Amino acid sequence: MTKGKRIYVLDTNVLMHDPTALFRFEEHDVFLPMTVLEELDAAKKGMSEVSRNARQVSRFINELIEHGDPRRIEQGLELRQPQGLQLERRAQSGRLHFQTRNLAPNGARGQLPDNLILASIVALREQRPEVPIVLVSKDINLRIKASIFGIPAEDYENDRALDDFSLLYAGHTELPQDFWDRHPEVRSWSERGHTFYELKMRKDEDWQPHQFLYLPEENDIELRVLRSQGRLATLQIVEDYRHSSHTVWGISARNREQNFALNALMDPEVDFVTLLGTAGTGKTLLALAAGLAQTMDQQRYREIIMTRATVSVGEDIGFLPGTEEEKMTPWMGALTDNLEVLATPQEGGGWGRAATNDLLASRIKIRSLNFMRGRTFLNRYVIIDEAQNLTPKQMKTLLTRAGPGSKMVCLGNVEQIDTPYLTETTSGLTYAVDRFKGWEHSAHVTLRRGERSRLADYASETL
Questions:
Q1: Which residue has the higher pLDDT, 26 or 440?
Q2: CA 112, 116, 119 angle in degrees (round to 5)?
Q3: Predicted structure pTM score
Protein backbone atom coordinates (compact mmCIF):
# COMPACT_ATOMS: atom_id res chain seq x y z
CA MET A 1 0.00 0.00 0.00
CA THR A 2 1.18 3.55 -0.71
CA LYS A 3 3.14 5.05 2.14
CA GLY A 4 2.11 8.36 3.71
CA LYS A 5 -1.17 9.65 5.05
CA ARG A 6 -4.31 7.66 4.26
CA ILE A 7 -8.05 8.00 4.78
CA TYR A 8 -9.76 5.08 6.51
CA VAL A 9 -13.50 4.72 5.91
CA LEU A 10 -15.07 2.88 8.87
CA ASP A 11 -18.02 0.56 8.50
CA THR A 12 -20.71 0.58 11.20
CA ASN A 13 -19.82 -2.88 12.50
CA VAL A 14 -16.27 -1.74 13.31
CA LEU A 15 -17.55 0.99 15.64
CA MET A 16 -20.17 -1.32 17.16
CA HIS A 17 -17.44 -3.86 17.82
CA ASP A 18 -14.92 -1.36 19.26
CA PRO A 19 -16.10 2.22 20.02
CA THR A 20 -12.48 3.33 20.46
CA ALA A 21 -11.70 2.43 16.82
CA LEU A 22 -11.98 6.14 15.97
CA PHE A 23 -8.72 6.81 17.81
CA ARG A 24 -6.70 3.79 16.66
CA PHE A 25 -5.50 4.91 13.22
CA GLU A 26 -2.43 6.87 14.35
CA GLU A 27 -1.81 9.97 12.19
CA HIS A 28 -4.25 8.90 9.46
CA ASP A 29 -7.66 10.47 8.84
CA VAL A 30 -10.98 8.74 9.47
CA PHE A 31 -14.07 9.19 7.29
CA LEU A 32 -17.63 8.33 8.38
CA PRO A 33 -20.34 8.06 5.69
CA MET A 34 -23.78 9.40 6.66
CA THR A 35 -25.13 5.85 6.38
CA VAL A 36 -22.87 4.80 9.26
CA LEU A 37 -24.24 7.57 11.50
CA GLU A 38 -27.80 6.55 10.60
CA GLU A 39 -27.10 2.89 11.42
CA LEU A 40 -25.53 3.90 14.75
CA ASP A 41 -28.65 5.93 15.55
CA ALA A 42 -30.88 2.95 14.72
CA ALA A 43 -28.85 0.60 16.93
CA LYS A 44 -28.53 2.84 20.00
CA LYS A 45 -31.73 1.65 21.70
CA GLY A 46 -31.49 -1.44 23.88
CA MET A 47 -29.34 -2.97 26.62
CA SER A 48 -27.17 -5.21 24.47
CA GLU A 49 -23.41 -4.79 24.11
CA VAL A 50 -23.91 -3.55 20.54
CA SER A 51 -26.37 -0.86 21.69
CA ARG A 52 -24.03 0.32 24.43
CA ASN A 53 -21.17 0.54 21.95
CA ALA A 54 -23.32 2.53 19.50
CA ARG A 55 -24.18 5.03 22.24
CA GLN A 56 -20.52 5.31 23.24
CA VAL A 57 -19.48 6.12 19.67
CA SER A 58 -22.10 8.88 19.54
CA ARG A 59 -20.72 10.33 22.79
CA PHE A 60 -17.16 10.28 21.40
CA ILE A 61 -18.25 12.07 18.20
CA ASN A 62 -20.28 14.62 20.16
CA GLU A 63 -17.28 15.35 22.41
CA LEU A 64 -15.05 15.87 19.36
CA ILE A 65 -17.57 18.31 17.87
CA GLU A 66 -17.90 20.23 21.16
CA HIS A 67 -14.11 20.59 21.51
CA GLY A 68 -13.64 21.43 17.84
CA ASP A 69 -14.87 24.28 15.70
CA PRO A 70 -18.36 23.46 14.35
CA ARG A 71 -17.97 26.20 11.73
CA ARG A 72 -14.99 24.37 10.18
CA ILE A 73 -16.39 20.84 10.43
CA GLU A 74 -15.89 20.29 6.68
CA GLN A 75 -12.13 20.53 7.25
CA GLY A 76 -12.30 17.69 9.79
CA LEU A 77 -12.18 17.40 13.57
CA GLU A 78 -8.91 16.63 15.32
CA LEU A 79 -9.06 13.09 16.76
CA ARG A 80 -8.03 13.98 20.30
CA GLN A 81 -8.45 11.10 22.72
CA PRO A 82 -11.08 11.84 25.39
CA GLN A 83 -9.92 12.01 28.99
CA GLY A 84 -9.98 8.65 30.71
CA LEU A 85 -9.46 6.68 27.49
CA GLN A 86 -6.31 4.64 28.11
CA LEU A 87 -4.89 4.27 24.61
CA GLU A 88 -1.37 4.82 23.41
CA ARG A 89 -0.75 8.54 22.94
CA ARG A 90 0.42 9.63 19.50
CA ALA A 91 2.67 12.58 18.69
CA GLN A 92 0.39 13.37 15.77
CA SER A 93 -3.29 12.52 15.42
CA GLY A 94 -5.46 12.43 12.32
CA ARG A 95 -8.75 14.16 11.66
CA LEU A 96 -12.33 12.93 11.56
CA HIS A 97 -14.30 13.74 8.38
CA PHE A 98 -17.99 13.27 7.69
CA GLN A 99 -19.89 12.81 4.45
CA THR A 100 -21.30 16.29 3.78
CA ARG A 101 -21.86 15.99 0.04
CA ASN A 102 -23.66 13.53 -2.21
CA LEU A 103 -25.80 12.17 0.61
CA ALA A 104 -27.64 10.02 -1.92
CA PRO A 105 -25.31 9.76 -4.93
CA ASN A 106 -26.79 8.75 -8.27
CA GLY A 107 -30.28 8.50 -6.83
CA ALA A 108 -29.20 5.85 -4.37
CA ARG A 109 -31.88 6.45 -1.72
CA GLY A 110 -33.58 3.21 -0.76
CA GLN A 111 -30.54 1.14 -1.63
CA LEU A 112 -28.78 -1.20 0.77
CA PRO A 113 -26.60 0.51 3.43
CA ASP A 114 -23.52 -1.34 2.11
CA ASN A 115 -24.08 0.07 -1.37
CA LEU A 116 -24.55 3.59 0.04
CA ILE A 117 -21.23 3.28 1.88
CA LEU A 118 -19.50 2.15 -1.31
CA ALA A 119 -21.09 5.02 -3.24
CA SER A 120 -19.81 7.51 -0.65
CA ILE A 121 -16.29 6.06 -0.97
CA VAL A 122 -16.42 6.39 -4.77
CA ALA A 123 -17.51 10.03 -4.35
CA LEU A 124 -14.75 10.65 -1.80
CA ARG A 125 -12.18 9.13 -4.14
CA GLU A 126 -13.23 11.57 -6.85
CA GLN A 127 -12.89 14.50 -4.42
CA ARG A 128 -9.52 13.37 -3.00
CA PRO A 129 -7.76 11.48 -5.81
CA GLU A 130 -4.31 12.17 -4.34
CA VAL A 131 -4.94 10.35 -1.01
CA PRO A 132 -5.17 6.53 -0.68
CA ILE A 133 -8.59 5.52 0.67
CA VAL A 134 -9.10 2.24 2.55
CA LEU A 135 -12.38 0.70 3.69
CA VAL A 136 -12.24 -0.99 7.12
CA SER A 137 -15.06 -3.48 7.76
CA LYS A 138 -15.64 -6.71 9.62
CA ASP A 139 -18.21 -7.69 6.97
CA ILE A 140 -16.52 -10.06 4.50
CA ASN A 141 -19.19 -9.52 1.83
CA LEU A 142 -18.75 -5.74 1.94
CA ARG A 143 -14.99 -6.18 1.56
CA ILE A 144 -15.65 -8.40 -1.48
CA LYS A 145 -17.92 -5.74 -3.00
CA ALA A 146 -15.27 -3.08 -2.34
CA SER A 147 -12.62 -5.16 -4.10
CA ILE A 148 -14.90 -5.45 -7.15
CA PHE A 149 -15.05 -1.64 -7.27
CA GLY A 150 -11.27 -1.44 -6.92
CA ILE A 151 -11.46 -0.07 -3.37
CA PRO A 152 -8.79 -1.43 -0.97
CA ALA A 153 -10.52 -3.10 1.99
CA GLU A 154 -9.21 -4.46 5.28
CA ASP A 155 -10.54 -6.24 8.33
CA TYR A 156 -10.34 -4.37 11.64
CA GLU A 157 -7.43 -6.06 13.40
CA ASN A 158 -6.55 -3.63 16.19
CA ASP A 159 -8.51 -5.73 18.69
CA ARG A 160 -6.43 -8.83 18.08
CA ALA A 161 -4.75 -10.24 21.16
CA LEU A 162 -2.29 -12.11 18.91
CA ASP A 163 -1.29 -11.99 15.26
CA ASP A 164 -1.35 -15.79 15.08
CA PHE A 165 -3.40 -18.03 17.37
CA SER A 166 -0.70 -20.73 17.28
CA LEU A 167 1.47 -18.35 19.33
CA LEU A 168 -0.96 -18.41 22.28
CA TYR A 169 0.55 -19.34 25.62
CA ALA A 170 -0.17 -23.04 26.31
CA GLY A 171 0.57 -23.04 30.05
CA HIS A 172 2.80 -26.13 29.94
CA THR A 173 6.15 -26.89 28.31
CA GLU A 174 8.14 -30.06 27.70
CA LEU A 175 11.70 -29.83 29.01
CA PRO A 176 14.72 -31.24 27.15
CA GLN A 177 16.11 -34.56 28.36
CA ASP A 178 19.35 -32.92 29.45
CA PHE A 179 17.50 -30.35 31.57
CA TRP A 180 19.29 -31.20 34.82
CA ASP A 181 22.67 -31.25 33.07
CA ARG A 182 21.98 -27.72 31.85
CA HIS A 183 21.37 -26.59 35.45
CA PRO A 184 24.17 -28.07 37.55
CA GLU A 185 23.72 -25.46 40.30
CA VAL A 186 20.29 -26.44 41.58
CA ARG A 187 19.26 -25.95 45.18
CA SER A 188 16.56 -28.35 46.40
CA TRP A 189 14.68 -28.71 49.67
CA SER A 190 11.54 -30.27 51.14
CA GLU A 191 8.87 -28.44 53.10
CA ARG A 192 5.45 -29.67 54.31
CA GLY A 193 5.59 -32.73 52.09
CA HIS A 194 6.52 -30.79 48.94
CA THR A 195 9.82 -30.73 47.04
CA PHE A 196 11.17 -27.43 45.76
CA TYR A 197 13.98 -26.47 43.39
CA GLU A 198 15.68 -23.14 42.87
CA LEU A 199 17.70 -22.49 39.72
CA LYS A 200 18.78 -19.82 37.27
CA MET A 201 16.87 -19.67 33.99
CA ARG A 202 18.89 -19.82 30.79
CA LYS A 203 18.42 -17.28 28.02
CA ASP A 204 16.12 -19.64 26.10
CA GLU A 205 13.93 -20.22 29.18
CA ASP A 206 11.27 -17.58 29.75
CA TRP A 207 8.86 -19.13 32.24
CA GLN A 208 5.68 -17.53 33.54
CA PRO A 209 4.26 -17.85 37.08
CA HIS A 210 2.36 -21.15 37.50
CA GLN A 211 3.60 -22.47 34.18
CA PHE A 212 3.88 -26.26 34.21
CA LEU A 213 7.07 -28.02 33.10
CA TYR A 214 7.58 -31.73 32.53
CA LEU A 215 10.18 -34.30 31.54
CA PRO A 216 8.56 -37.26 29.74
CA GLU A 217 9.43 -40.95 29.45
CA GLU A 218 12.00 -42.48 31.83
CA ASN A 219 12.94 -39.16 33.49
CA ASP A 220 9.29 -38.40 34.14
CA ILE A 221 8.86 -35.41 36.45
CA GLU A 222 6.22 -32.68 36.57
CA LEU A 223 7.02 -29.24 37.97
CA ARG A 224 5.31 -25.91 38.44
CA VAL A 225 6.94 -22.47 38.39
CA LEU A 226 6.00 -20.96 41.74
CA ARG A 227 7.70 -17.63 41.10
CA SER A 228 10.47 -16.05 39.09
CA GLN A 229 12.52 -13.01 40.13
CA GLY A 230 14.81 -11.83 37.39
CA ARG A 231 16.47 -15.00 36.12
CA LEU A 232 15.98 -16.91 39.41
CA ALA A 233 13.07 -19.39 39.36
CA THR A 234 11.50 -21.48 42.13
CA LEU A 235 9.95 -24.77 40.99
CA GLN A 236 7.73 -27.21 42.86
CA ILE A 237 6.85 -30.82 42.10
CA VAL A 238 3.11 -30.87 41.37
CA GLU A 239 0.50 -32.89 43.22
CA ASP A 240 -0.38 -36.18 41.51
CA TYR A 241 -4.15 -36.48 41.16
CA ARG A 242 -3.98 -39.51 38.85
CA HIS A 243 -4.23 -42.16 41.57
CA SER A 244 -7.48 -43.29 43.16
CA SER A 245 -6.01 -42.56 46.60
CA HIS A 246 -5.70 -38.86 45.75
CA THR A 247 -8.80 -37.60 43.98
CA VAL A 248 -10.79 -34.35 43.84
CA TRP A 249 -14.45 -35.02 44.74
CA GLY A 250 -13.99 -38.56 43.45
CA ILE A 251 -12.45 -37.42 40.16
CA SER A 252 -8.91 -38.40 39.20
CA ALA A 253 -6.86 -36.94 36.35
CA ARG A 254 -6.62 -39.18 33.29
CA ASN A 255 -3.65 -37.47 31.67
CA ARG A 256 -0.84 -35.02 32.37
CA GLU A 257 -2.76 -31.93 31.26
CA GLN A 258 -5.75 -32.74 33.47
CA ASN A 259 -3.36 -33.17 36.38
CA PHE A 260 -1.92 -29.71 35.69
CA ALA A 261 -5.46 -28.28 35.55
CA LEU A 262 -6.42 -29.79 38.93
CA ASN A 263 -3.24 -28.38 40.48
CA ALA A 264 -4.19 -24.91 39.30
CA LEU A 265 -7.85 -25.25 40.28
CA MET A 266 -7.06 -26.50 43.80
CA ASP A 267 -4.40 -23.88 44.59
CA PRO A 268 -5.82 -21.10 46.84
CA GLU A 269 -3.04 -18.75 45.68
CA VAL A 270 -4.38 -18.86 42.10
CA ASP A 271 -7.34 -16.49 41.75
CA PHE A 272 -7.87 -16.83 38.00
CA VAL A 273 -7.70 -20.04 35.95
CA THR A 274 -8.29 -20.43 32.22
CA LEU A 275 -8.79 -23.87 30.68
CA LEU A 276 -8.69 -24.09 26.89
CA GLY A 277 -9.46 -27.29 25.02
CA THR A 278 -11.63 -29.10 22.49
CA ALA A 279 -14.83 -30.93 23.35
CA GLY A 280 -14.37 -33.86 25.71
CA THR A 281 -11.10 -32.79 27.34
CA GLY A 282 -12.80 -32.55 30.76
CA LYS A 283 -12.79 -28.77 31.33
CA THR A 284 -16.23 -28.51 32.97
CA LEU A 285 -15.90 -31.74 34.98
CA LEU A 286 -12.54 -30.73 36.46
CA ALA A 287 -13.71 -27.19 37.27
CA LEU A 288 -16.89 -28.46 38.96
CA ALA A 289 -15.09 -31.18 40.91
CA ALA A 290 -12.53 -28.69 42.22
CA GLY A 291 -15.29 -26.22 43.05
CA LEU A 292 -17.33 -28.79 45.00
CA ALA A 293 -14.27 -30.02 46.91
CA GLN A 294 -13.35 -26.49 47.99
CA THR A 295 -16.94 -25.41 48.68
CA MET A 296 -18.36 -28.49 50.41
CA ASP A 297 -15.31 -30.12 52.03
CA GLN A 298 -12.75 -27.36 52.61
CA GLN A 299 -15.31 -24.55 53.11
CA ARG A 300 -13.00 -22.22 51.19
CA TYR A 301 -15.86 -20.71 49.16
CA ARG A 302 -19.48 -20.07 50.09
CA GLU A 303 -21.00 -21.30 46.85
CA ILE A 304 -20.40 -22.00 43.17
CA ILE A 305 -21.74 -19.57 40.57
CA MET A 306 -21.92 -20.77 36.99
CA THR A 307 -22.65 -18.63 33.94
CA ARG A 308 -22.12 -18.68 30.19
CA ALA A 309 -22.75 -16.65 27.06
CA THR A 310 -26.22 -17.51 25.71
CA VAL A 311 -25.40 -17.85 22.02
CA SER A 312 -27.45 -20.40 20.09
CA VAL A 313 -25.77 -22.98 17.88
CA GLY A 314 -28.80 -23.36 15.62
CA GLU A 315 -32.14 -21.59 15.23
CA ASP A 316 -33.38 -19.69 18.28
CA ILE A 317 -36.31 -21.45 20.02
CA GLY A 318 -37.74 -18.18 21.35
CA PHE A 319 -38.23 -16.78 24.84
CA LEU A 320 -37.83 -19.12 27.79
CA PRO A 321 -40.28 -19.07 30.73
CA GLY A 322 -39.56 -18.80 34.44
CA THR A 323 -37.06 -17.11 36.71
CA GLU A 324 -33.49 -16.15 35.79
CA GLU A 325 -32.21 -19.55 36.91
CA GLU A 326 -34.98 -21.42 35.07
CA LYS A 327 -34.28 -19.46 31.87
CA MET A 328 -30.59 -20.34 32.12
CA THR A 329 -31.15 -24.06 32.81
CA PRO A 330 -31.49 -25.10 29.12
CA TRP A 331 -28.12 -23.45 28.45
CA MET A 332 -26.52 -25.42 31.26
CA GLY A 333 -26.64 -28.91 29.81
CA ALA A 334 -22.91 -29.32 30.54
CA LEU A 335 -23.58 -28.59 34.21
CA THR A 336 -26.38 -31.15 34.39
CA ASP A 337 -24.37 -33.84 32.60
CA ASN A 338 -21.33 -33.40 34.83
CA LEU A 339 -23.36 -33.26 38.04
CA GLU A 340 -24.72 -36.72 37.19
CA VAL A 341 -21.12 -37.95 37.35
CA LEU A 342 -20.19 -35.98 40.47
CA ALA A 343 -23.40 -36.52 42.46
CA THR A 344 -23.37 -40.33 42.55
CA PRO A 345 -23.21 -41.47 46.21
CA GLN A 346 -21.52 -44.73 47.14
CA GLU A 347 -24.55 -45.86 49.13
CA GLY A 348 -28.17 -44.91 49.68
CA GLY A 349 -29.58 -45.86 46.28
CA GLY A 350 -32.18 -43.56 44.74
CA TRP A 351 -32.87 -41.71 48.02
CA GLY A 352 -29.17 -41.03 48.51
CA ARG A 353 -28.82 -39.80 44.94
CA ALA A 354 -31.80 -37.44 45.30
CA ALA A 355 -30.48 -36.08 48.61
CA THR A 356 -27.03 -35.51 47.09
CA ASN A 357 -28.55 -33.69 44.09
CA ASP A 358 -30.58 -31.40 46.37
CA LEU A 359 -27.52 -30.64 48.50
CA LEU A 360 -25.34 -29.78 45.51
CA ALA A 361 -28.12 -27.74 43.86
CA SER A 362 -28.32 -25.57 46.99
CA ARG A 363 -24.63 -24.67 46.66
CA ILE A 364 -24.56 -24.14 42.86
CA LYS A 365 -26.23 -21.03 41.47
CA ILE A 366 -26.82 -20.41 37.76
CA ARG A 367 -26.66 -16.76 36.75
CA SER A 368 -27.07 -14.88 33.47
CA LEU A 369 -24.35 -12.66 32.01
CA ASN A 370 -26.99 -9.99 31.35
CA PHE A 371 -27.29 -9.13 35.05
CA MET A 372 -23.62 -9.09 36.07
CA ARG A 373 -23.08 -5.32 36.01
CA GLY A 374 -22.78 -3.84 39.49
CA ARG A 375 -22.42 -7.19 41.25
CA THR A 376 -19.53 -8.19 43.51
CA PHE A 377 -18.80 -11.84 44.27
CA LEU A 378 -17.46 -12.40 47.79
CA ASN A 379 -15.89 -15.78 48.58
CA ARG A 380 -17.44 -17.35 45.51
CA TYR A 381 -16.12 -19.92 43.05
CA VAL A 382 -17.23 -18.57 39.66
CA ILE A 383 -17.22 -20.75 36.53
CA ILE A 384 -17.59 -18.96 33.17
CA ASP A 385 -18.41 -21.61 30.58
CA GLU A 386 -18.21 -21.12 26.80
CA ALA A 387 -15.96 -18.10 27.43
CA GLN A 388 -14.76 -18.12 23.81
CA ASN A 389 -18.01 -16.34 22.87
CA LEU A 390 -17.24 -13.32 25.07
CA THR A 391 -15.75 -10.12 23.71
CA PRO A 392 -12.74 -8.63 25.55
CA LYS A 393 -15.04 -5.97 27.01
CA GLN A 394 -17.49 -8.59 28.33
CA MET A 395 -14.58 -10.55 29.80
CA LYS A 396 -13.39 -7.42 31.61
CA THR A 397 -16.91 -6.79 32.92
CA LEU A 398 -17.02 -10.30 34.41
CA LEU A 399 -13.53 -10.43 35.88
CA THR A 400 -13.94 -7.06 37.60
CA ARG A 401 -16.90 -8.53 39.55
CA ALA A 402 -14.50 -10.62 41.66
CA GLY A 403 -14.40 -9.59 45.32
CA PRO A 404 -12.11 -10.74 48.16
CA GLY A 405 -11.72 -14.50 48.46
CA SER A 406 -13.23 -15.35 45.06
CA LYS A 407 -11.82 -17.52 42.30
CA MET A 408 -12.72 -17.10 38.63
CA VAL A 409 -12.46 -20.05 36.22
CA CYS A 410 -12.89 -19.52 32.46
CA LEU A 411 -13.56 -22.51 30.20
CA GLY A 412 -13.76 -22.54 26.43
CA ASN A 413 -12.91 -23.92 23.03
CA VAL A 414 -11.94 -21.29 20.46
CA GLU A 415 -12.81 -23.71 17.65
CA GLN A 416 -16.50 -23.27 18.60
CA ILE A 417 -16.97 -19.48 18.47
CA ASP A 418 -20.61 -18.62 17.71
CA THR A 419 -20.53 -14.84 18.30
CA PRO A 420 -20.52 -12.78 15.06
CA TYR A 421 -17.29 -10.90 14.28
CA LEU A 422 -15.29 -12.80 16.92
CA THR A 423 -12.35 -14.94 15.82
CA GLU A 424 -9.71 -17.05 17.53
CA THR A 425 -7.41 -14.04 17.88
CA THR A 426 -10.07 -11.53 19.01
CA SER A 427 -12.04 -13.68 21.50
CA GLY A 428 -12.19 -12.45 25.08
CA LEU A 429 -10.84 -15.81 26.23
CA THR A 430 -7.72 -15.46 24.06
CA TYR A 431 -7.39 -11.88 25.28
CA ALA A 432 -7.53 -12.99 28.94
CA VAL A 433 -5.02 -15.83 28.49
CA ASP A 434 -2.50 -13.52 26.82
CA ARG A 435 -2.91 -10.62 29.26
CA PHE A 436 -2.87 -12.69 32.47
CA LYS A 437 -0.03 -15.09 31.67
CA GLY A 438 2.55 -13.03 33.59
CA TRP A 439 0.42 -12.45 36.71
CA GLU A 440 1.55 -14.39 39.78
CA HIS A 441 -2.03 -15.31 40.79
CA SER A 442 -3.23 -16.75 37.49
CA ALA A 443 -2.73 -20.06 35.69
CA HIS A 444 -3.59 -21.40 32.26
CA VAL A 445 -3.69 -24.93 30.86
CA THR A 446 -4.45 -25.98 27.29
CA LEU A 447 -6.04 -29.44 27.27
CA ARG A 448 -5.48 -31.39 24.06
CA ARG A 449 -6.40 -35.00 24.78
CA GLY A 450 -10.08 -35.94 24.74
CA GLU A 451 -11.37 -38.33 27.39
CA ARG A 452 -15.01 -38.86 26.45
CA SER A 453 -15.08 -41.98 24.30
CA ARG A 454 -13.40 -43.51 21.27
CA LEU A 455 -16.36 -42.32 19.17
CA ALA A 456 -15.95 -38.69 20.35
CA ASP A 457 -12.18 -38.81 19.84
CA TYR A 458 -12.52 -40.18 16.30
CA ALA A 459 -15.22 -37.61 15.43
CA SER A 460 -13.05 -34.78 16.75
CA GLU A 461 -10.11 -35.91 14.59
CA THR A 462 -11.89 -36.75 11.34
CA LEU A 463 -14.90 -34.43 11.04
A1: 440
A2: 140
A3: 0.80
